[in-house]
Specification:
The protein contains 24 helices and six strands. The protein is mostly helical and 722 residues long. The protein folds into two domains: 273 residues, no CATH class; 258 residues, no CATH class. The strands form three sheets. A two-stranded antiparallel ribbon has the order 1-6. Strands 2-5 form a two-stranded antiparallel ribbon. It is rod-shaped. It starts with a helix and ends with a helix.
């Protein structure tokens, strides 16, 4: 038994015959299994790729169903709703997965309950970012963008000139009114000085006249008569007093002897005394009254001078503040964009200095008026070395019969004459300063021309105002398509906006106020355009899209004021009629043209010299040219961008009505402009943008029957290898 076991062990264990064959069989089995697994994994990878390609084809098929109305506006949005899009996706996916009539080698099958598609409505065309992106993609390769950009650069080429005009206008408007107030005050001062002079000249003969041989006591014609005859008055007064004393001491018999003759003499003297005193009193009171009147007038004049001086200081301060502030920053980007810009070397701001009167003028004027007053002014102390106090002293002396301290009049006439002469001389000097100072001389020489230019400005301003008023009245009568605009407003709210009305109204009642309002608008216009062109051009593309895809006012159309002919205007302004939106555009065109023409006015050869004249001339020129421009624009004609040629090298481009709208789209960048654009798109295409998806996501699953991998796994599992 033992031997049998050894023999079997040697035969089956120790014997090496057939070992290589067994080894090769084992290796071959493992290689076969490995290759079988690789084949199935390859089939899985192919299945995944085929499933992915089928899903992509299905997605493209779903997305191919874009809305043609929106496509005509350059936009992409699906026509399908969620259910329709998902059905198309499943059908196309299944056909592409199964291969249709072709042999399906992999045997792929879709898993119905694991196939889905989502339209992602949060990324519909009602999403501002999505809509902007599509507009930008649409406009990237459109030639009109380049055309619009070129026109904007031409417009910005005049930024330097308009900026100087804007800076000048801001301060000129303010100081021009102040200068007029100051001039009115100085005119009042001049008139008051004339009145004071007249009063002083009225009493000149009374004070300086000398009694001739024909003037006898008790007649008083000049103040000199009072001093010449007051001795006679005192003598008569003494005689009367002596006579009255004698009469008191006489008895009745003595009275009867010489009463008649003496009494007659005394009566005559009393009558002369009374006449002398009355005429002296009347003369002195008249002199005091006239002198007091002159004093009060001079005091009023001094107050007005000080008020005018304060205004002059304010004007100087306003000019210095503007110069210190420097040029407006609103134009920096605008000037940088225009590479062909030629700098304006004219010192326009320097001409503002003409508005300031040299402070020495007021110093000298006040000195002369104070000198005149000091010859009149009553002192609070006992000093009577002035005209009025001296006259009052004489009056008091006359009324007290030259008694006591009033008996000494040796130099009174000389003093009064000196005081009066000095006062009149000071008043004349003050008048000479007011009338012949360099500033007032320039002002008076230019006064008629300034008034003429201001009248011209008002005349042309009124022409423009009448044109715009007539347009407003016409728009009030013609309110077309009200139901359409009501619907558009509802759509604006639907897209998350609110009802608002844009547009700027400009006052045409006051020249300076119009200038201020117009430049406020134009400053913002240059700032926005310059900023957009130098930093980001997206807004330019969007604006050009609006101008290209929608209708602006057609001047040749028979029904020009309907919605159909004023779509761009509605997007900009949001008013409730086509005519009202058109009128808003015309109003802003006026502001732009006025600002440009005012800048050109300052460059005219005639606009030289005296500051107030320059401002008046430039305003007149601006209103005249603007009135012409508005007539041409409302007739549908093009106009020159700038009314004068700035350089031989640079052409002067022309701008039409639509070109101005291109500018205004930059002014009204904020607000509800985009919501109004959505509303117009909705209305024109009859498509709710919130239902027009632009983005879809899908999930798809397929199955494939594996050939080897399941059996390999089962076998390995049964041998407990895995």
């Amino acid at each position: 038994m033992k031997r049998l076991f050894k023999k079997a062990f040697h035969k089956f264990v120790v014997n090496e015959k057939g070992a290589v064959s067994i080894y090769l069989i084992i290796v071959a089995v493992f290689l076969l299994l490995f290759n079988a697994v690789l084949i199935d994994f390859a089939r899985i990878i192919v299945a995944e790729r085929q499933t992915e390609e089928a899903a992509k084809v299905a997605l493209r098929s779903s997305l191919a169903a874009y809305n043609t109305d929106l496509q005509n506006k350059g936009l992409f949005g699906l026509s399908y709703n969620q259910k329709e899009a998902e059905s198309v996706f499943k059908e196309v996916f299944k056909k592409n997965l199964e291969g249709g009539d072709n042999y399906n080698l992999l045997g792929l099958k879709p898993v119905g309950n694991e196939i889905s598609l989502n339209l992602n409505m949060e990324r519909s065309l009602a999403n501002k970012d999505i809509l902007k992106y599509q507009i930008l993609e649409e406009m990237k390769y459109k030639a009109p963008v380049e055309i619009g950009e070129a026109l904007l650069k031409d417009f910005l080429s005049i930024a330097e000139h308009v900026q100087q005009a804007s800076d000048y206008a801001k301060v000129a408007k303010k100081i021009n009114k102040k200068a007029k107030n100051r001039e009115e005050l100085l005119e009042d001062v001049e008139q008051l000085l004339e009145d004071a002079k007249e009063l002083l000249e009225e009493i000149e003969d009374d004070i300086h006249g000398e009694s001739g041989a024909g003037n006898k006591y008790p007649n008083v014609k000049y103040i000199d008569d009072i001093f010449r005859f007051h001795g006679q008055y005192l003598s008569d007064l003494e005689d009367v007093e002596d006579y009255e004393k004698e009469q008191e001491n006489k008895d009745e018999e003595d009275e009867e002897e010489d009463d008649e003759e003496a009494e007659g003499e005394i009566k005559k003297k009393k009558k002369n005394m009374e006449k002398f005193k009355n005429e002296s009193t009347r003369l002195l009171k008249r002199l005091i009254h006239r002198s007091t009147g002159a004093k009060e007038i001079l005091e009023e004049a001094l107050e007005l001078i000080e008020e005018a001086e304060d205004i002059n200081e304010e004007i100087e301060s306003d000019i210095e503040e503007q110069k210190k502030k420097g040029s407006s920053k609103d134009y920096e980007d605008a000037k940088e964009v225009s590479l062909e810009l030629e700098q304006n070397d004219s010192d326009l701001m320097g001409t503002l200095d003409n508005y300031v009167i040299n402070p020495q003028f007021f110093t000298d004027l006040k000195a002369e008026v104070n000198k005149a007053l000091n010859e009149h002014l009553r002192k609070t102390d006992e000093n009577t070395g002035k005209l009025i106090p001296k006259l009052e002293e004489f009056l008091e002396g006359v009324e007290s019969d030259f008694s006591g301290k009033h008996r000494s009049y040796d130099r009174h006439v000389e003093h009064i004459q000196d005081y009066h002469e000095d006062t009149l001389e000071a008043v004349n000097n003050a008048l000479d300063i007011v009338q012949n100072s360099e500033y007032r001389k320039d002002y008076k020489e230019n006064e008629d021309e300034i008034k003429e230019e201001e009248d011209k400005a008002d005349e042309h301003k009124d022409e423009t105002k009448e044109l715009l008023d007539d347009l407003d009245e016409e728009m009030e009568r013609i309110k077309k398509d009200r139901d359409i605009f009501d619907k558009l407003n509802e759509l604006v709210v639907h897209y998350g906006g609110k009802i608002e009305e844009n547009g700027n109204k400009f006052s045409l009642e006051d020249r300076d106020e119009t200038s201020d309002e117009a430049f406020g608008f134009v400053d913002m216009l240059f700032k926005n355009i310059g900023n957009i062109l130098i930093n980001a051009r997206d807004e330019l593309y969007i604006n050009e899209y609006i101008l290209m895809r929608f209708q602006s006012h057609d001047f040749k159309a028979s029904d020009r004021y309907t919605y159909a002919n004023n779509q761009v205007e509605y997007i900009i302004y949001g008013l409730n009629s086509g005519g009202a939106n058109y009128a808003a555009a015309i109003s802003e065109i006026f502001a732009v043209r006025f600002a440009i023409n005012l800048a050109a006015g300052f460059l005219q050869p005639e606009a030289r010299g005296f500051g107030p004249f320059i401002w008046a001339f430039a305003l007149g020129f601006a209103f005249k040219e603007t009135a012409k421009n508005m007539i041409d624009i409302t007739d549908g004609k093009s106009i020159d961008l700038f009314p004068i040629k700035l350089s031989k090298k640079i052409r002067i481009p022309q701008m039409n009505y639509k070109d101005h709208l291109r500018l205004f789209l930059f002014v009204h960048m904020e607000g509800e402009k985009f919501e109004r654009l959505m509303a117009v798109l909705h209305h024109d295409t009859d498509q709710d943008l919130s239902e027009r998806s632009t983005y879809v996501t899908a999930k798809a699953t397929s199955t494939v029957n594996l050939w080897f991998l399941p059996q390999v796994i089962d076998m390995l599992g049964s041998t407990k290898a895995i």
